[in-house]
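RETRY 2/3 - previous attempt timed out on the joint model. Re-submitting the same 478-residue input unchanged.
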Amino acid sequence: MSTSRSRTDAELAAATRSDPLAFGELYRRNERAIVGYFLHWSRSPELAADLTAETFAAALASIDVYDPARGDFRAWLFGIAHHVLARSLERGRVEDEARRRLGIPAVVVDDETLERIDATASLDGAVLKLLDELPPATRDAVLGRVAKSVSTWNWRGPSSARRASCGNACDGASRDSVTAWR
Amino acid sequence: MVLIPDLENKLIRAAEREAFAAAAAAQPRSRVRRRAGKVVNTAAICLVMGVTLVIGGGALILLGGHKAPGHHPATGASGIQATRRQFLDILAVLRRPQTQADRAFAATGWAQPPRASGTRAVLDRPLIRLATTTPSGAQVFVVPLKIAGNHRSREAVALWVQGIGWSDYSTPADIIDGGAWGPFQAVPAANEKRLSSWFFEIVPDGVSKVVFYNLSDLKRPLRFNARISAHVQNNVAQFKDTGGVRIVFAAWYSPTGRLIKRVGDWSLTRLNPPRTNQGTQGGPFSPVPLRSPTAK
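RETRY 2/3 succeeded.
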């Protein structure tokens, strides 16, 4: 039996329904790229964490429809990430439908996590390089449409301190409404 | 190095739940189950069977030592009977005779309990008990039920609270470990800019009081800014609180005031709950400010 590390992304995706740890390996392989992608657009570690959570939740929920014949897993994942970001931009709040549907609680972002994500910001260029590896249509869709949307994004993200204080209570209502609670 | 280990852990737990549901759904179905399956498949399905629960805009997280639902072994008919006996052993409220008030559960307008795709929840009606009521008059029922997949079933207990809904499902181990929290409801208070929260816990026999410690923030070492005491009634403790942080740190006390159990990962803090409930006095819903560890 092959170990998780020796299996391809496609094999791990196919195994996820019977081997939950396979999805953990997929997460570890792609987390940095997705976090970096969201960090590039949002410049906010908290938002990047939330958007990453929604992206992987959506990937888990629809893992059965991933077809390796149509592209590699990372391209598929970036497609989901793009969709999550675009939906969040449209709605002015972090999309969380898939995360909620799977019963995944909001991510707890403590200081150590923030520091690790902040450190990823220095890899921003590397993330954009990863995007260059995507199929042209996917890359253009991810970069082009998001770039248009960013100019209209009126997000009021909570500060780090506020995010830490609201914790999982940020879940439920939009996170920006936490401002009014505290 | 993983950037967000908390997310990795939660995704794996969710994958476990999905795998469990997929395995249950993949089994051959009888005609009756096929009909039930159609209902299940057309409903909006959201299963929260872990110790972490998110209901109504809030969440409870138990740090340390708790198993996700995917870890619970599936049980056959004999296993279910054994689990049922365990519930009877640890919850006195289930051992008393059922009354008319208990049977009034049917008239409360309860909604179908949450369940995973391909499974169904069957209420153990003879064991349903009215445990308590909230100050606003909402009834709180302890509801044993069976989560039945195809060839796999397990017994659980949940709380049903009028106006709030279902709690997470708990096994006997969950209850003994201090992991049977919920349901949780967060409501913006009418005249203040803070959240007012309701939440509940099922506790085993011998626990007469629960003190819930409210975190001031999530910075380490974790600190508390208040504690909320709840006297247990019929194995159920209910809490009202303001604020949002919901990582579980709690302490159980016996009727004599002795500390029975610390719930949560107290190694993350520099504090410990008092060994007796002296100093944890206060009404069931009275936040009591804690002294700073450095205060004189």
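The radius of gyration of chain B is 19 Å. Closing ticket.
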